[in-house]
Amino acid sequence: MGDASETRAALVKAAFQVIAQQGFEGLRTRAVADAVGVNVATLHYHFPSKEDLVGAVLDELVARFKEEAPVSDLPPEATPADVLEAHFAAVKHWARQAPDVQLVWHEFWLRSMRDPALRDRVREVMTRHRRALARLLNGEAGEGLRPALGPQTASALAALLSGLTMYALVDPTTDEADSIYRHLVPLLTTSPQPASAPRARKNHPPPARRAP
Question: Helices 99-112 and 116-137: crossing angle, nearest 10°?
């Protein structure tokens, strides 16, 4: 194992995969340390408590959302239709290319129902996503979007996309999101042309990040 920052990053990634594969019930500090090839004392040097480790995993999860989501490929001049296309393409992306991200996210969501401290952080992540979606939909090119639900459009879309992603995790072969996208976009945008299926994101590795 390399320097301290590399060890810390490796511990976070190992814990991330344990949660993805076994849920929080399977998260044991010794198992995480063993996966990285260090002792438990080293793990506790970086994360004095299990809650500290869990918080670092949530930070890693948010970072992967930002780096790997198809919306991250959009140019600054993207239109509301482009934003919608990228978000619906994400349903298939998460289910088929990076299911571990969504599995860990749903584990955090479930745990937050019983952990008030974690609930605040999970709610913050959800609120930031909805606000970011609203900003994208109401950017400089916002004239291309119908005010179908007024200020609640982003919240309604976020809820719809969350449900579609959950179903796609159970059945990764489904193209339900594509069908809904084709029928929904003409209702939300001023474009008279029917929408085609959202384009899949180019399958390239996420950009390198400095270890936290």
Answer: 130
